[in-house]
Amino acid sequence: MLHALTDHEHEFHTGMTVDAAMEVALALLRPEGFDIATYDFSPVPLSHEGEFITPAVLSLCNAPEDMEGLWCRGGYYQIDPVMEASLAVSRPFAWAHGGRQSPVMRKVLAEKHSPVVSYLHDTRMTCGITVPIRAEGGALATFSAIRLDPERAAAGDAEQLLAAVGQLGRIFHDAVYPGFDAATRTSRHIRLTPRERQCLRLCAAGLTTKQIAHELSRSVPTVTLHLNSATRKLGARNRFQAIARAAHYRLLEPDA
User: Fold this and answer.
1) Residues 144/37, Cβ–Cβ less than 8 Å
2) Which residues form the HTH luxR-type domain (predicted)?
3) Is 69 exposed, middle or buried, given 0-12, 13-18 or 19+ CB atoms closer than 10 A?
4) How far apart are the C-alpha atoms of 149 and 99, rounded to whole Å?
């Protein structure tokens, strides 16, 4: 059915929920031997320290019940080799934790990924295709199709479906992304109050503390309090570093 994807594209509509889109996607994937579909979206994929930030959206269709907890709260998302590969390339790629591994994955696999690889072996999720999707403002989404207990030749067979799964992943994202609200599109790794963001935004524009106080009709000590609080929350040494980190998390944008 994937080879006739254009005949089914109408089943995806702009603004549909992730769950609804997942049902359509998995129905198209199953005839090709895929058992599980996953999708995640991160408005800011990495912290300023270079670690993966748990995504704002994570949808797992037909996956093991404990997978969401491990990835969102157990730290597995931060050591998932597929996520590292998704940052390294912009094209769909196949992966296999058994048999022949793809060149993309061979470049990133390391000892730190062992817990994730072991889990995938234990749950029989040893072969799949992942589609990295660069979104607005540097956001990252990935769509994956996974096979359970594939035969040794499955990895090579999966490579023949890269283009079709890649197209499906992008159609999926284009359908669900318009339905994301402002909170979903904003990084929640660092939480600043609206006033703290406003003060930082004006500081980044070059205003002094006194000028910010005048602009907001607040006292200088109050503005200083907001700036110092934001600097502390960002783990910055000074306001210049706070502005840089706030920009990294897209907290200086008007609708952040």
Assistant:
1) yes
2) 185-250
3) exposed
4) 12
Same CATH fold assignment for domains 2-179 and 194-248 = no
Three-point CA angle 105, 173, 146, nearest 5°: 40
Q: How many CB atoms lie within 10 A of CB 247?
A: 15
CA distances, 176 to each of 41, 156, 168, 181, 253 (Å): 10, 30, 12, 11, 23
Q: What are 49's two structure tokens?
A: 């320290």
DSSP per residue, 102-121? PHHHHHH--GGGHHHHHHHH
Confirm if 194 and 167 have CB atoms less than 8 A apart.
Answer: no
pTM higher than the cut 0.70: yes
7-11, 71-75, 87-91, 121-125, range with the lowest pLDDT:
7-11
What class, spelled out in words, does domain 2-179 have in CATH?
A: alpha beta
For residue 96, give the 3-state DSSP assignment: strand
CB neighbourhood size of 38 (10 A): 23
Strand partners, 148: 125
pLDDT tens digit sequence for 196-224: 999 999 999 999 999 999 999 999 999 99
